Prior knowledge:
The chain has 2 domains: about 10-65; about 80-140, no CATH class. It is about 65% helix and about 0% strand. It contains 5 helices and no strands. The longest helix has 24 residues, at about 10-30. The model has no long low-confidence stretch (mean pLDDT about 90).
Amino acid sequence: MQRMRIRNPTDFWTGLLFGGFGLFAALYAATHYNLGTAVRMGPGYFPTWVGGLVALLGLALALRSLKLDGPALPRVRLRPIAFVLGGSLAFGYFLKPLGLVLATVLLVVISAAGGHEFRWREVLALAVGLAAFAVGVFVYGLGLPFPLWPQALD
């Protein structure tokens, strides 16, 4: 009997990831929302079907990885992951005390510091542009009550 060998690790791990997310979405929606029927769909109908289709796509990718050759997985670089995660956490933590503008600038600067090319001029231009975009979309466009600037300490 011939042993199965993973010939394409990228497709294999992508398939497992898709399969896991798809199953989680399908099973979570199926247990927490009413499915309904195809004629009278409930709130869980669409997420269940999409989760099932994503899980099937994952299965297809995982099976494909056993037949077709592909590249090896690249080395996982933890520095960019840590900096993007840290920037996101800093944004969430500092949004209220610093305001949307400064929290967005902080998010961009911290996240960009994780990259292999960091140029202050480019990072600050991007930060200012994204902060202006965030204010335009979330505060003025959607009317969300985010503070724009640091609040006075009482």
